[in-house]
Amino acid sequence: MFKPDVVVVGAGLAGLVAAYEAGLRGNRVLILDQENRANLGGQAFWSLGGLFLVDSPEQRRMGVKDSLDLAWQDWNGSAQFDRLADEDSWGSQWARAYVQWAADGKREYLRRLGWSAVPFVGWAERGEGSALGHGNSVPRFHITWGTGPRVVELFATPVLEAERAGRVEFGFRRRVDDLIVEDGAVVGVRGSVLADDDSARGVSSSREVVGDFEARASAVIVTSGGIGHNHELMRRNWPTDRVGPAPSHLISGVPAHVDGRMLGITERAGGRIVNRDRMWAYTEGIHNWDPIWPDHAIRILPGPSSMWFDALGRRLTGMSGVPGADSIGAMKQILATGHDYSWFVLTQSIIEKEFALSGSEQNPDLTGRDVSFLVKTRLAKGAPGPVEAFKQHGIDFVVADTLGELVARMNGITRGPALDVEEIERQIVARDREMDNAFTKDVQVMVIHNARRSRTDKLIRVARPHKILDRSHGPLIGVRLNILSRKTLGGLQTNLDSQVLDADGAAIPGLFAAGEVAGFGGGGVHGYNALEGTFLGGCIFSGRAAGRAVADRR
């Protein structure tokens, strides 16, 4: 009978990393997950595989000058830690350690496992317009060659080898319902055996209980993910005072099994949850026309050129009105209308150059590591195939040759007030006038010109500046944008060894947490805002810390 030294709850990326690190140090590891083996790697599998790195060779080759000081300035400006005496006390320490690792050690750690990046570095969350405020000052978004599946593979491969060697055992369709606590220490888990279900990856699975189980070990590492598909829990914790009313229409960027159950279970065992009101939902969500899970949403990763209007037809203002610049700032403007959606208005030239879609399955060229396919799809005329499919089949897209026709079709799919074509035209014409010169007072146009100073953006990411109503760049395209759930920024408070802390700040013996369930470390390493490329990295960094810590305590 397999007798583990460590039980890992969750077979996502953080769990695999923790198991890998613990196994390297001689531990026998049992990995439990409520889903089947097809879901190995969890949400990371569906990701674009972006990783936050600082002063990397990829950046330097693209002419980007980055440094630890600049990255830490950006992280602090984005996190805006304001609970340092309590809820942010450990998250801020995790943040400093993580940014240092991103500048020195992270890339080499991954390279030793076989990681490589696409040579073009992306510029995500460009910021609010202040050097000391939110945002990345330079491009730092390194897309993994092979996207999320490749990141998962880096750690799944050695863990599966350890399984074949008898050092790791998986318990799929095992749902943990309780942590076993004896004499103040966590000594194992107990839960329900779920009925076998051979559903494909990501598909919502059966919750029929056919038995129970118990597993004991000297350490338990909780790596169960966040609350992204638990809309009720998200709305309960939604920061209405800071962001605006919780959206009534919410679509899901994560599968149904991302339910947040283990947060409450760990809290009952004494673990402390902090920063419950911090979460990372996106404003650029579109309904997947070919869904895998319920309410399946895809995020548009936009370049800066689409014009952005709220539900009332008013153009979003400032840097948060620039697509891809300031997610939370845009959220505030959108929700302030009393509605939970907004609009992009753009041209065919913009969609061809600037629309990317989140998700490994939406980027088959990168995911399949096919160089010839990559060149064909990214440099050929026309939008990439997955983008064109959404344009043709997606319920959030409308296309027309004239603005009048476009607005009429936008009004055909509105969930709120009808848009006034004359008012939309007035705002578009005003911005179009700003395109006659290489200088401007329009913030968005400034950002477009600045973005094209980046070699990556000019080559493959930002369209040549042009007027929206210039028919040579048509047809016109309208996109209804919905709020999309994604990541939990708060979670179980942990020290730098990933030990879960109790209400008094003491480490609970035998209990560790890593990944999204721990706010990616400390209960909130990101603070209020994420700089992107930091979610997978946070799973890796905190899982690494947990796996090493359980080994060191033996």
Molecular structure report:
By secondary structure, this protein is of the alpha+beta class. The chain contains 18 helices and 21 strands. The protein has helices at 13-24, 57-61, 68-79, 89-103, 106-112, 147-164, 231-237, 261-268, 327-335, 348-354, 364-367, 371-379, 385-393, 403-411, 421-433, 443-451, 455-461, 535-552, and strands spanning 6-9, 29-33, 50-52, 141-143, 168-172, 174-182, 185-194, 209-216, 219-222, 250-252, 273-274, 279-287, 297-301, 307-310, 341-347, 356-357, 397-400, 476-488, 491-492, 499-501, 507-513. Strands 10, 12, 13, 14, 15, 16, 17 and 18 form an eight-stranded mixed sheet that branches. Strands 5-2-1-9-21-20 form a six-stranded mixed sheet. Strand 6 (174-182) and strand 7 form a beta hairpin. The two termini are 21 Å apart. InterPro entries: FAD-dep_OxRdtase_2_FAD-bd, FAD/NAD-bd_sf, KsdD_DH, Succ_DH/fumarate_Rdtase_cat_sf.
Task: Provide the descriptors you would attach to this structure in a database record.
single chain; 554 residues; alpha+beta; FAD/NAD(P)-binding domain; 18 helices; globular; oxidoreductase
